[in-house]
Amino acid sequence: MSKKSSPAIETDQEKPNKSVLTAIRTSAQDIHRKIMARKKPTMKLPVRSLSNVRYQPQRGFFEMTGQKKERTLTVNTVKTFAQTLRMIALSKELIENDDIATKREAYYVSKNWEDARFTEQPESDTVMDDVEAYFGVNREQLGFIPEEKGGDVAGRLFVIDHDRDTGKVLRIDCTKFGSGAYSIPISVEQLQFETNADFILVIETAGMFQRLVKHNYWKKANCILISMGGVPTRACRRFIRRLADFKKIPVYVFVDGDPYGITNIYRTLKVGSGNAAHLNEFFCVPQARFLGITPKDIVDYKLPTHPLKDVDIKRARDAIKNDPFIRHYRDWVDAIEYLLKMGVRAEQQALAKHGLNYVIDTYLPEKLNHPERFLP
Amino acid sequence: MVSLQTISESDPSQPAAEKAKLRQTAESMAARQRDISISEFFSKNRHLLGFDNPQKALLTAVKEAVDNSLDACEDAGILPVLKVDIQQLAEDRFRISVEDNGPGIVKVQIPKIFGKLLYGSKFHTLKQARGQQGIGISAAGMYGLLTTGKSIVVTSRTGREKPAHYYEIQIDTRKNAPQIIIDKAVEWEPPHGTKVEIELIGTYKKGRHSVDDYIRQTAIANPHCEIFYTVPETGGTVHLQRGSDSLPPEPREIKPHPYGVELGVLIRMMKETPARQLSAALQRDFSRISGRVAMEICKAASLSPNANPHSIAVHEAERLFKAINGVKIMNPATNCLSPIGEEQILSGLRKEIDADFYTAITRAPAVYRGNPFQVEVALAYGGSLKGEDLVDLLRFANRVPLQYQQSGCAISKAVLGIDWRSYGLSQSKGALPIGPVVLFVHIASVWVPFTSESKEAVAGYPEIMRELRLALQECGRKLATHIRAHRRAVDEEKKKSYIEKYIPHIGIALREILGLSEKAEKDLVITLKDVLERSRSRERIEE
To answer: How many CB pairs under 8 A join A and B?
Structure first.
């Protein structure tokens, strides 16, 4: 099942994308025709929020339930409508010229649009996400790429890539980066893997990743270490998914014991986001399991804690109420309620209280003895 | 003459006092006990009359003179023309001069009016007027005399064929009697009128409690009067023009209504009535007491209708008092009031305040404790007024601006009691609303219930609070309608500019995607503008 993914995702962004160009042209013609017929044009966009996704464990990711909002061109929507169309025009230009623009660059391009320009990047990101969802494609296919890098990898893994100029096969040994790491590229579809690791350990913070790399933990545990650096990027999610599918190895996730670590980082890695739900099928890791820090760990390991902030509490309550994934698992609802009841959070690095290498010598081995106890 | 008696403080029943050596005997004390003249009392308690500090003293003196002038002009049916002149003689020394074109004052009356406290025409009747007690102007003269030693100077002329009289008067505070310093006939140009000049210690300041503000507010509430006001700082004269040529209708005198009379007053009225029989006295001296009602009162008080009112004992008067309040008596006639009127208030606001929207409400007359009263509320909104400030609340009683004790006044309490947010203004809890608003509130009554003699705040009788609330709400609703319409217009404008701004970009984008010609792009933009403009009015908000 190594390379099975959708044709849309499989396409190479460096070649002009005929189907996307056709889609852009068709929708623009449709809008043009409607206006000239003195009718108000509309765009149908999927609703990009948690309210429009459902979770089924056998499918393994957040699926859109099909709610669409219709954006009709009216006086109230004329600004967004104009901006969306100009963003589509920019995308068309990028594809035709075989060029790319980062999200930030696209924002700066809009500064030429006079009244239609964006004041802040979040505005242009939102419009970009709308365009992506409107055409049901990945933003890379539209010529837009994210700034952030995908994540760091170290351990028992060979990544098979090709030299861009010569086409020569590159066999990248992830054990040979010393105290550094292999960096996940923005596009991972062309990569292939060789590994005999027992599991993949996905880590939230760069600090914890550094510690495990420095002490060659991957050697001791025969695993692959991947650092997400916060909420995992699409490339990071896709990389882990392809790797895990390819070798059928388990994925264990090690994040901070707080609502953000659980409901944002872990949940997004495992089942995707509500924001770009049309892509979750490819950007999710359904086999991921939650190693820690669990709310129970805080008690079991007598971890030093900080009180939950208001935003933590809000995030936790919101997850219990609205997140279809959390709601699907009684264990998760219980765990979060337990965390709320304690009113505290604990970071990964709180384990250092018992000694800097306690995490390597005690915590991880103890946890890994009972993967069946990991949270779903 | 009114007199106050000092009260002996020692109490002989106290054993400690008995043992102690007597410091004073009843006789020695009696030797020092004597009448205190009302003028002496007020010279020691000048704050009761509004002379507590130099700034307020200046304002009060001007105010008393102007109030008197306006009352006199209106009583005589003359459209008032006032010259108010404040001259700064030294840093804290001022000479105020207020001249009117009123009927003038008969020679023999001049000394008493200006040199005797509680002498006046207004105390004994119930009639809507600015002055009530007959204290104001003579107190101002007394204050001037106390602080500068200078007499109050009065020039008055009652007609073209009569000479003008010039008086310099001082008040003998012990006797509460005028002392005439100079009395002569003089050449004076105006055919009739009165001019009052007082020299006093004061402070001239700008702001809420200033003379400037008093003059401006007086002009708003009295659009029929014309004022030439000479400001002390610059010496320049401000001409406040008339906003209306019609005098307010003359208020009518009424007899007191039984419900509003206190026991002491009732006893005095019974003593002083010329009627020979109780029933007749009640009918003669009160309003709304018919023969039948008089009989009912007498019966309830177990007094004979034929009893001699002059020989009514105190306990009998008390029964009478209770009986009055137990019998149903018709409300007093309310046609004795002279409200400013919606039209007149609007003309006053329009000429003094530059705003976008004006509205005024004159409520129907109502009654508190037997006294008829009437509430008027108006407001000016927008224009040059500042939106981020608290609302400018102007309070008036019988057309006189109330500038002090805002927080203790029923008017302010009524304003605070309204939720102005529902009328489109913002408001913090327990504070005046915020917005570009001048709020005008007037209470007219035959007897305005002030909380003190300095006439600065109105007492909050439930009937008054209710009328204030209803009037404020009515004005608020009109304001809300205006604000909503205004916002809609602004919204419309914004939407229109949206169309202008963003439709060209739809044209550009579609040209770039579809490779349209310039003409095709232009056609598209024109068509789309037209489609949106047409649908704008019936469009509902989407998303």
So the answer is: 94
